Amino acid sequence: MILVTGASGYIGSHFFTKLIENNNKCLGFDNFSRSNPDIIKKIKKLTGKKVNFLEGNLNNEKFLEKIFNNNKIKSVIHFAGFKSISESINNPLEYYNCNVVNTIKLLEKMEKHGVKNIIFSSSATVYNPKSKSPLNEDQHVYYPDNPYSQSKYIIEKILKELSRSRNFNVGILRYFNPIGCHSSGIIGENLVHEAGNLIPSIIKVINKSSPTLEIYGNDYLTKDGTGVRDYLHIDDLVEGHIKALAYIKKNRGYHLWNLGSGKGYSVLEIIHAFEKELNYHLPYIFMKRRKGDIDQYWADIGKAKDELNWDSNFKLEQIVKNVLNYTNIYLDKNL
After folding, report:
1. Distance between CA 144 and CA 281 in Å, rounded?
2. Is 64 helix (H, G, I), strand (E, B) or coil?
3. CB contact at 8 A, 264 and 228
4. Which of 150, 188, 226, 266 is 20 to 30 A distant from 199 in Cα terms?
5. Which residues lie below 8 Å from residue 272, measured CB to CB, with a gap of 6+?
6. Which residues on adjacent β-strands are paired with residue 159?
7. Using one digit for the tens of pLDDT, what is the confidence trace for 209-234?
8. 145-164 pLDDT per residue, tens
């Protein structure tokens, strides 16, 4: 059985859905601190199958013990955790406790019950911001300057040590910027708790729930002054997890891959792609840069291509259509 932590979150819910669709034996859990309980009902509707899910916290030892005692867990896909750089700067202890301490508790249970396979969702923000893109897995990783990225880096180091001393089989996936939603339009990015992210912010403006889109910074060293990021469709990201899990079961030890599109798009390019599809101008204003944000980065995905036989398939235009389908924007006659 595959255990999925953070199974009702944006990425976790899409991966959990894919496992169920593929008839994998799996168990998901979440505490709904950053997600909506309705997502589980949606997954059940989407798959037409039983959803094996429990509500609970990683910091609840009795809850974790019960999961491992009552289920034959063979592998863990670890999504659970907080993920905002700016929020982590304001709440460092909360981030270290949620991301690092809770992960250690999970790993202790895994070791106790002989579960050795784990895929961990890390972040491209662990790379040195001064490194030149495209970023590859062999480039220097520095000790990041914000608690969110630090927490990801610390967990990577812990898992590397466990692969050496406890024979854990580890797959580290350094995400760039996940985007898009399930092709059904039933599940997608949380438009409430992810309000600081670009796509939810764009949707709020389109839906008239926000008057203006706030762009943080227009003085980056990029072609149009706005930050450049690597945007990866959620379906491509999920496929990367499926292939990474299969890989570590056959190739033991510690493994690390970038998952991105291998291309960089600026904030304005993303906005213009939505405007083109909608034939509608999105009002925006420029704000000060947020602490911790860097000018630009995108991925070298050659290692994932070679070792996992994985690639990014979705183009930006497809992603925009996909997002708009999820939010039912085409049905809004006021545009």
Report:
1. 37
2. helix
3. yes
4. 150
5. none
6. none
7. 889 999 999 999 999 999 999 999 99
8. 899 999 999 999 999 999 99
Q: In the numeric block, which tokens belong to residue 278?
A: 């909608």
CB count within 10 Å of CB 154 equals 19
Residues in the chain: 335
Q: Residue 212: which region, alpha, beta or left (left: phi > 0; alpha: psi -120 to 50)? A: beta
Query: Encoding tokens for residue 35?
Result: 């997600």
- The strand ranges marked E within the chain are 2-5, 26-30, 53-55, 75-78, 117-123, 169-175, 177-179, 213-216, 228-229, 231-233, 254-259, 265-266, 284-287
Question: For residues 272 and 262, what is the distance between their CA atoms, to the nearest angstrom?
Answer: 20
- Residue 250 exposed, middle or buried by CB count within 10 Å (0-12, 13-18, 19+): exposed
Whether 148 is catalytic is yes
Catalytic residue among 95, 96, 127, 148: 148
Gap between the Cα atoms of 140 and 75, Å rounded:
29
Contact 102, 60 (CB under 8 A): no
Mean pLDDT of the chain: 91
What's the N-to-C CA distance of the chain in angstroms?
Answer: 47
pLDDT of residue 335: 44
User: In what helix (H) or strand (E) does residue 156 lie, and over which residues does it extend?
Assistant: helix 147-165
- The three-state secondary structure class of 105 is helix
Instruction: Give CA separation, 282 vs 12, 75, 90, 156, in Å.
Output: 30, 44, 30, 39
- Concatenating the DSSP letter of every residue in 167-187 gives --EEEEEEE-EEE---TTSSS
Q: Mind listing the pLDDT tens digit for each residue in 190-201?
A: 765 555 678 888
